[in-house]
User: Fold these one by one.
Assistant:
Number 1:
Amino acid sequence: MSENKIRGGALLARALKDKGISKVFTLAGGFCNPAIEGFAECQIEVINTPHEQIAGHLADGNTRITRKPSVCLVGPEGFTNAVPSMMEAWGERSPVIYITGSSSLKRQGSGGFKEIDDVSIAAPLTKYSASITDGARIREFVDKAYHIATNGYPGAVHLSLPVDIMFSSFAEEVGLEERPFSHKAKPLAKAWPDPNSLSEVLELACNAKKPIIIGGHGVWWSHSEKNLEAAGNNLNIPIFNVPYHQKLLGEEANAYMGLADIHQYPPSEYALQNSDLVLVVGARLDNQMNFGNPPFIPKSSKLVCINGSHEEVELNRAADFCLLSDPGVFLDTLSNLKKNNKWTLGTTWFEENKKKKKEWVDKSLKDLEIEAEASKKNGGKIHPLQLSLDVQQEMGENDWLVIDGGNTHFWSEIAINIAGAKGKKLKGILHPGTFSMLGVGVSFALSAKNHNPDSNVVLISGDGAFLSGGMSIESVFYEKKPITVVIDNNGGLASIGQQQERLFKSGKSVATDFRDIPFHKIFEGFGGYGELVNKREELAPALKRAMESGKPACVNVKAKPVLSPIVSAVASKREKSSIE
């Protein structure tokens, strides 16, 4: 073994380098300096941010786009700031590696400097949370954490590296004297289906007259979205996306119908209620799926869940049938039924769903046109659905759209589906995950710009969402990345306030209003471009000027606080206050 000594932080950096980690997001602090020095020596890019939550969201955004783990490095007190980003990553199954430079291991439990129980705090929000107890085992802990984060049911992990280990010196080859002798990242393990169980599912599919596929996280993280599209096209099966999760297919894809959400995408109700087989691939039967229960999925439909890990199978115990299989393997086998002359389903069911989609799109646009004309006559503000459609109209197929907020998110999801049905193509879409975390937008937009420097990246953010995470624009200015932020400025927390008006006996909202905030002036103050838009006809030229400015830009749009269909549905009864 070499006699050369390196600090624990440098050893950590080398262990992560072996895994192919290329980016670390942080707010630099004294507890983490040896690791930062190690990353620099390993030529791993270190991105400093103004807040640890931003560091976490940037790591998450980078991971979602690349489908490769990124690192969020924080100090002990900064760890608590990063926890919200950990929850967001957990909801999206994003394999971010969180690392805390923590208080001294030697005096653990005695009230050391900045001592917190970070391992216990992170445990419910990660697949794995542990403290490295011996510097000689740093490589072992990193290897285990990486393996857990990326295999099976992917998700965030957390390692705590005590400051005394971080600064102590160790032989640079320590940890390599035991297996595994190589710590390079290995190919991901894939679950191969049991032949008998697979045959049962395929038989159900072959006998179905009105099957649908609902795709979720597992399809994205297993790189199986093309397999999903091929199965839908080859077999004439309508495809739906689980709400609020990574978009698996472009909205223009022929087999893609929209969100599996009866409120935001009403045609899905027709598909679900008339289906005889629902194949849920790589998704959970959680609250967004009504836990697999009627009326979302009717009792008359056979519900089959296909998941790539045993954890997901266990979560989907309510299904009529569960199959442990890599999503890509299953989708390819399903698609091959036609090639093997075992598939007899015609196009009638598929065309019925396409017709329902067209009817909904046409009606939505007609209703919106009537609303827009009325608004124009009385000088009213722009509808949030119209806002999102108009923004997309100015974007090209090489551009990225990011959405953030409550009502803003919901209306933009609807707009994306409508625009896609009319032929709009976008290169990528990012948005909050299952927890609807406010304030992720700027960080996700910066992540998209980092990986697509030649694309316009446009963020449509609610005013409340921007207030939650808007100071992350400092990172945008520091990195000199021109993104365009469109503020859906309705003067408050619209979705909450309008729920309150329907929920409270007084019929009034409480603590949900904002003052008139000049968001565009904030960008100007940072050295960027800003414009205020009061009328719809001002939006398109303002957006063009913003995107052509070459600077981080803000188009501050005065919009109507219109309740989205999903919020309206859950707020329709005073006693019903939850989405479930």
Number 2:
Amino acid sequence: MQKMTKIRKKNLFFMAALSLGLPGSLFLIACLLVRYTKNSEKVKIPENTLETIQERTAQNIFEKVQKRTVTENTPDENSQLSETNHTETNQAKKKTGRNNTFETIPATIRVCIRSDHYENELHDSISITSDAPWTLFEAEENSSNLNDRKEIQKFGKEEVFSVSSADFSCGTHLIAVPSEGNGFYFPELQRDIPKPEYEGEIYLYVEKDGLFVVNEVELETYLKSVVASEMPSSYPMEALKAQAVCARTYAVRRIEAQKNRNSFSDLDDSVSFQVYNNQIVSDASAHAVDETKGEILPFSEALYYSTAYVPGSEFMKVPDAEDSDKKDSVSDESDEEFWKMPCFNAAYSETEYLNGTYHDLDLSDNEVFDASLKALPDENAEYGSLWVRWHTVLDVSSVLAQLKQQSGEEFSFLEHIEVSKRSSTGQANELLLGGNGRAIRIEGEYEIRSVLAPKEIPVCLNNGQEITGLTLLPSAWLSIEPYDSQTGKLFLSGGGYGHGTGMSQCGAAAMAEEGADYRKILDYYYGESELEHVKDL
């Protein structure tokens, strides 16, 4: 209606002007020019103003990126960043050198204590005791603040409290508080050491199917146990320091990721996160944590693993001029592009660090990888780790059972199996299996290692030692011999132990043995441009 009124007014204006003849028409044209000029002034933006708006918009984007948490920068069901946002995030990281939102390192961390041998998060029951008197509290009903607690019972020295989920109603929160300077023990909990002590408070969350047991402990105390459990205390001190920085970075990022989530814990004490309290804290592991107090890497997480795969010695020599006319024994290529400079997570030996001759071969081709696997590595590679080479023989029936459990795919027999895709470092990224007239692909390093898990089948190490009970294949740096369906056996060989991302612990030890400090080690595996931002927070 308002629009129609405006149209009518315009029509009346035109009719009145035209009725006046030439003077009226001239008057109309003048009015229209004035109105157009005014509208132009309203929409015109000076160039300097436009530049200011663009700068302000860029600044707003930069500030928003700075405020993002690690989980917000990781696409998941709650946060899907566009390619543009990923670019903005990377640019902001380059400018700031950090992507954490903490002004200080968190004081404590919440660790879920898993059941015997780390099998489950929930416990059917648990027993707690201490070498000194302690007190059991219950969180006030309907209170979300666990500091609102009422005392239930006092316990004397070495007095044991045993509880199951049936003893309390679902939703009950119990808190065990030790005497100052003391910790708790779980007498029946199975770990590699007989009596691991847990400092800090113990939280028991009663659920329908069992108990969640959570240890809230000072972060630096937690790290001392992690370093002792994740890296042998006999390793050189600088390697232990590098481990401490990585472990602290991982822990801080987990705390950050969980801070806005309704979760009982930040992580658990198993290999799914970082192993905690599975070995006695040594003077060396404690010193490594103390010497690097507050230091973290500016990454969303700092991953590490035990041992890398090391190419054989014949692949560790750079071709020189006199070899330029020769063809490589495993490739038709002879140009310099066939060789690559070291990557951050490459395997390490003392020889490489001293003379800088190590070049990482492109091992994405099965034939190239298989040939490198058969060649003997440098004897100093990966601190002399026995996992640098290993082999095993699996029963195909167990592989098919694990395939069904993992993917739901069922074969009555296996006709064909091969690594169908590798990374440039030789790590298997895709496994192709055929049977019953069809084929399926298993994608991902972890998934492949799960399907090919040896479990009770022995894995033979470099010195002939046999290891059983592995729930994953040692690594995805593996070679599969041509499969003969008549034997029902699968012959595997490989190298390294772990997922192969980040810092090799054995490689770090080898570098430290030759005089590299922990910053040099972190530089080698994570990059010099980022390492310079490691500092006390």
Number 3:
Amino acid sequence: MIQKIISLFFLIFLFSFFSCKSDIEKNKEQLPNIIWLVAEDQSPEFFPIYGNSTVELPIIESLAKDGIVFNNAYTPAPVCAPARSAIITGLYPSTLGTHNMRTYNSYKKENQPSIGIPSYSPILPDGVKMFPEHLRKIGYYTSNNSKEDYNFKKTDGVWDDSSSNAHWKNRAPGQPFFAVFNFGISHESQIWKQGSNDILVDQNLVPIPPVFPDTPKIRKDIAVNYSNLIRLDKKIGKIIAQLKQEGLYEKSIIFFYGDHGGPFPRYKRSLYETGIKVPLVIKFPNSKFAGTENNDFISFIDYAPSILSIAGIKPPDIMQGKAKFGKFKASSKTSYIFAASDRFDEKVDRLRAVRYKHFKYIRNFNPKISNAIPVLYREQMPMMRELNKLWKENLLIKDHELWFETPKPKEELYDLTKDPYELNNLADKISLKDTLFFLRKILDQWIFSTKDLGEYSEKELVKKWVQGTKSRKLKPVSFKKKYGKIILEHIDSGSTILWKEKNGPVWNVYSEPINFPKSIIVKAVRIAYDDSDIVLIQ
């Protein structure tokens, strides 16, 4: 009798499942396509959509006319790998343990042997996953072309394709897609790599930011960057043209953004606005909100929950960001922007910052170290070598030498409305004592509430995550066969179960009982863990 009741309930479950499945198929047709166009290493101040008329960027300008220009978009880290860990998870790098540049080095076996730091993948908090995985569960085709660099070892099952050939065109007919395109032409390295190529602007007319002296070498590097933006615009134009040719442009949500601040010294790797403020344009279907601006704070940790919300997926509670759009849009706005800066390659430091209204507060935990730490990678830039030379020869004026100052102040406070380049530190102003105390307290609360790992030495963290642990290999997936379906389970609730037909090309994310094919293989995966052994089911 009990067995009959169980069977009846299971039949009811299957009936409900098949009924819902038809609804899911219908919903697929209504899900928006989402495209991310990512410019590496760029600040808003270089773009005409933010008031700079040095170059015309017709594609980006047209996209802005069809969408929303965000005037206060930020990264929580001023360098690519930590920033990308925030984008892909919706959490702060200092919470994840991805705050150092780099932790997991996918480009070479060694990481930073000169200071004893190996390549390692931090053990992320329970429940943290790369958000495209959630999109694949509801039928999205996900593609990434092609930079990853998440500061941890990614898992299978996140992307249908992550390669230089990744493109939405490879999806099934009618399948909704999330497609990412990364553009390296605007990267820091292109300042010296493109330096011998054509300069597409008049070097004599480019504006020089007030943090730099006006010299021929510095003018040239700035002109190279503007030239690279012209090249970037043309590359983005090819993607936009494809969307329009396929009738997808009007139906799609398109993000254009920079992955952190500009490619220059005192920009990239800096907690000043030049390092953490980024360009952001979002175009919605049918150009909803076309030609508007948004002054609200938005951080990279908000991107993942926002995309999930747009797709009708409730963002996981563990995400620290807020959904800014969609079904699960947060009811309150963001009041603060937080950012962190730690190790860059072979050089170690620790800084934290909070932006509130028009004020910025920065805390330097190692004031004896100059902001101009000699990162070998950056030393390749002619501008950086020029600045070093002028500094050593005592030829820099006050505003230009502040970045080299040693010791640097323990605390910095800036009024960004009066001082957008943060050259006048107000931390000692008696009239702003209450503001200083308030922001100091807010930063302390954030460090505590987000479990900021920056207080621990990296070697301690490596020992905890890598050297002092037992094997991190996941146990095999278990399965049951019932009524022509396969039900998969795994003992670790933080893992993801993947499956594919025995000779299939792409792993699928398991989310519901599987119709029994001839044979499938299954495994469990989790960030920083070794995949489980593969189980064959036939």
Number 4:
Amino acid sequence: MNKKERWITFVIVLSILFLSLPLISAASNQSKIDDAYKCLKDQIGDSCSKLTSEEQIYAILALGNYKDCKSKVLENSRDQECWPKANCKLKDTALALLALNQANANTEKVENWLLNQTKVADDLIWYLQIDTNDASLCTIKYSSSSYPVNILSTKKVSSGAGSCLSISENGYWLKFGTGNCLNNEYIISCDKEFTTTLLYRNAESSTIHVSQNLHSESSNGETAEKITYKCFQQAGACNYEGSLWATISLNSLKHDTSSYLPYLSASVDENDKYFPESFLYVLTREDDYLSSILQDNFNGKFWQIGTYGKFKSTALALLALQGQTSNEADKAMTYIVDETQGANGCFNSNFIDTAFLLYSGWQDNSGGGGGTGECSSDLDCSSGNECLNGICTPIQSQNCVSQGHFCVPSSSCAGIEFSELNGCLSFEVCCSEDLPTCSQLGGKDCELNEQCNGDLTESSETLNCCIGTCEPKVNPEPEIYTCGVESNEACQSNCIGNEVQDRTLTCSPGQVCCVTSKSGGSSWWIWVLLILILIVVIAIIFRKRLKLFIFKFKSRFKKGPAPNQTRPPFPPGPSYRPSYPSNTHPRPVFPANAPRPMPRKTGEKDKEFEETIKRLKEMSK
């Protein structure tokens, strides 16, 4: 082989290796995903009963009805309609609904329970807008009464209409009262052509939202307005996090959830710790929410928002972007697989984090999720799958894609929807038409290090379709908040109960990091330390008296016979008689029968000692 042939051979081999790298990488990633599924199955073992009730729900989301987890989840319910059994909550019940639907269970009772937890969204402030081209005399009827209202040439209203409608702050609308006023139906008629609609805002925000329902009539016609927009309540009040989960779970079962969107969309800023943009993008596919997910909240490797931590935040983002291609999702999935997988195969070495991520990012993967796991009958498989040779397998005759159709987001189908066909992900529908391509929309696909100066929208190939220009990101690496990585850490506006603020961990502006002891331990050692400090302070203040007390206390124990008197031995020789100085008196000699003075008793207390004891007793009270 000559030199030229060797070079040609070298180039061919190098090209083959280069082209095979993506295949090798994909095979490596698939192996790691298989390890993650295996980690879940290993922790389940022979029975789902080893898991907590929350873990059982996430196990179904990731694995389907593996080891009969469905029956264990139902056992933890109250009458198979809400979770947990002792104190039913919105979020837990909504997650159970998603899981049971994944396991092909009958969820009618769960759906009805959630739908019965709704109420008018009275957390919002509501307005009635009457729009006319010219000044007009209008009449508003409600509660069997009729009220005249003039619409001035300036578009302002002249007066309120009874006790339920007052003039708004800017003078252009009528503001609804609270209580029963929100339940009334309002009939409006004007002597000129007019349009009516409802406006609303969050009580803590000045942003006004416009209802999608506009009602127009000619002169002397009538329109009807009624506040039908709702939230999901818990303990009698609208619960935002529970409303997010309840809405997307009912949406996945094809319920009409439009009446819950005003409450959810109007309260985004006040509840950003729950990552509401992910839920709202699932529900609306609006470009603003997509931009917020991809451009505002992605930190370069993963998502980390509010109280959820980076693993649950990333899972929520992947859930919103599910079934569509984006640079950010690809980057995050690579990070999760390459940098967070523990020795046991689980991500973050955590069962729930792993199950949630597999459900959100790899639901259509063949590693055992999405109802494609082990089975003993068709009931063990999710909808659109059948049990063949112990494995849940898609039914080809009922599969959307195999029938020449397209799986698209539920709110993006512009053609005919085939509800009887399966094989699409949780928040997708089978549609006769695919999404338009990015070029058909007049856009271009921005790279990961670029930001769209315009509107981001979804297309059939990517979510990064920019209707505008792609520009380098000014801050490609936004600040990474360190709070929330551990399960006992959470970013909140205030710490409550036994939570303690950790100033070394960071949160988004306006929030602090609250840490709860993992063991739920005791604060007894704090009290012991405080008592010791108090004793030391008292000892320092009363040190002189304490010294006297100790001295006299010890003196009480010096009992027994007095020591024998000793004297130096007399020198030998004649008898020795001691002499006394001239200024001293010799020791008196008493007659044998004369009375002697009584000696002082050894243990007698003096007055000062008694006073000292008295003060110490008073101090000890």
